[in-house]
Amino acid sequence: MTTVSDIENMIARVGIGDRNAFSALYDATSAKLFGVCLRILNNRADAEEALQEVFVRIWQKASSYSANGYSPMTWLITLARNLAIDKLRARKAPTTDIDDVPDLRDQGPTPEAAAIASSERAQIDTCLNELDDGHADAVRGAYLNGDSYQELADRFDVPINTMRTWLRRSLLKLKECLSR
Amino acid sequence: MSGSTDIDKDDFALAGEYALHLLDAKERAAFEQRLLNEPALRAALREWDEDFATMANEFEPVSPPDHLKAKIELDMFAANTPSHGVSAHFWSLRRFIASAVAVAALVMIGFYSYNLNRFSPTQVADMITADESLFIHAGYQDGDDELHFIRHKGTTGEGRSLELWLIPAGETVAVSLGVIPEQERGVMPLAAEHAAAIKGGTLAISDEPFGGSPTGQATGPVLVVTPITDL
Questions:
Q1: Which helix (H) or strand (E) holds B123?
Q2: pLDDT value at B5 more than 90
Q3: What's residue B103's pLDDT?
Q4: Contact, B163 vs B205, CB < 8 A?
Q5: Within the 58-87 window of chain A, which residues sit less than 8 Å (CB to CB) from chain B?
Q6: Measured between CA atoms, how close is A6 to chain B, in angstroms?
Q7: Would you tell me which of A1, A43, A78, B23 could form a disulfide with B28, CB atoms 3.0–4.6 Å apart?
Q8: What is d(CA B42, CA B47) in angstroms, rounded to the nearest whole number?
Q9: Mind listing the UniProt keywords for this protein, alphabetically (chain A) (predicted)?
């Protein structure tokens, strides 16, 4: 199984222009990153386009990876998620292709899943649960679906400024809990 | 988890909003500008990214389609490939060969027309570009040493050539099958190792200088990538 340090090595080698490492990194991480793009964009064609841009970006930015202090899967997932949300925002009318739901699920644990201790996962869940009603869903919706303030405000039926005040307050509470 | 303690709460919340991608384009750009000069802000953002990433196991892994990897590598490395100082001599040789191939193809078209009734493809690929400006059908009959094509739609730009590439199954490196002749229909000769790799492979077309890529790798934009299907 590919380990976190394998991924780290691959990124480092991609950083010096190693195409074999790029190929190996793609094989090890594309399913996870495609999953991120699909979840955010909810459309296969858009997600394929996004994944292509993600790997171009990885090729370009890998040389600066070692200096930034990120764990490798966080770096890759953050990059993919940000790019997918950029595309989502750029898309004029949001499409909801229910038929586009993922159909090719990978089996087995991913390096990322193995890397993230369940205790950390439990900690963010615990801390999210300490937030006021619904605010945890807002944070989750923003992270997992790429919801915008407007979408969150519509869902909670509050003005966008109120939504923002709530969310910022929730973030500070969340941070306080996580650093306990 | 240190380094972010010396920024105020507002900035901390702002970094969280940035990490969630909730800021509008203008705020986002302003924050990115600050990131360049403020290590404490970068540290705060990294903490948020790492914290939020613990939710990332809810992103279900999904295998992307097989041909996507080849397309990505073809696009990227074609664009990034320096020309390796390919000499003008080599270039003109390629051009000569391409012309010779074109003439040969013309001759073979007659042959193909003659043999039309005997061709029954076992593998095909309908290569249609995203904007539908180009539609080329390719057909291959098992055991043949040539690939049949029908250009349903689209012409080649002035002074340009469309080059056909084969990405064999399980491979990521594309091999050139040559320039697609300008005719509406015809055949392209296949080397034995390429013929053997048609089944399960993927075809791609790139837009190249006249006579085809001078480097042996796609240099122009890849217009379409289509997996070959069995009939």
A1: strand B123-128
A2: no
A3: 60
A4: yes
A5: 59, 68-71, 73-74, 77-78, 81-82, 85
A6: 19
A7: B23
A8: 9
A9: Sigma factor, Transcription, Transcription regulation
Q: Is B53 on the interface with A (CB under 8 A)?
A: yes
Q: Does A36 touch chain B (CB under 8 A)?
A: yes
**B29-68 tens-digit pLDDT:** 999 999 999 999 999 999 999 999 999 989 999 999 988 9
Residue A16, helix vs strand vs coil: coil
Q: Which of B52, B58, B64 lies at the smallest CB-CB distance from A48? A: B64
Length of chain B: 231
Nearest CA in chain B to A149: B22
Q: What is the pLDDT of residue A24?
A: 93
B128 and B23 both lie in a single domain? no
Q: How many helices (H) and strands (E) does chain B have?
A: 6, 9
A34–B63 CB contact, under 8 Å = yes
Residue, of B119 and A45, whose pLDDT is higher? A45
Per the structure, the count of domains in chain B is: 2
Q: Does A168 touch chain B (CB under 8 A)?
A: yes
Decide which of B219 and A103 is more confident: B219
> What's the confidence (pLDDT) of residue A42?
95
The domain that holds A152 is classified in CATH as 1.10.10.10
* Residue B111 covered by a domain: yes
The verdict on B43 and B142 lying in the same domain is no
Whether residue A88 is found in the same domain as residue A125: no
The answer to whether the Cβ–Cβ distance between A34 and B71 falls below 8 Å is no
**Contact at 8 Å (CB) between A143 and A167?**
no
Q: Are residues B136 and B224 in the same domain?
A: yes
**β-pair type (B185-189, B202-209):** unpaired
Question: Domain containing A133: what range?
Answer: 117-178
Same domain, B93 and B70: yes
Task: Look at B42 and B129; give whichever has higher pLDDT.
Answer: B42
Report if residue B1 sits inside a domain. no
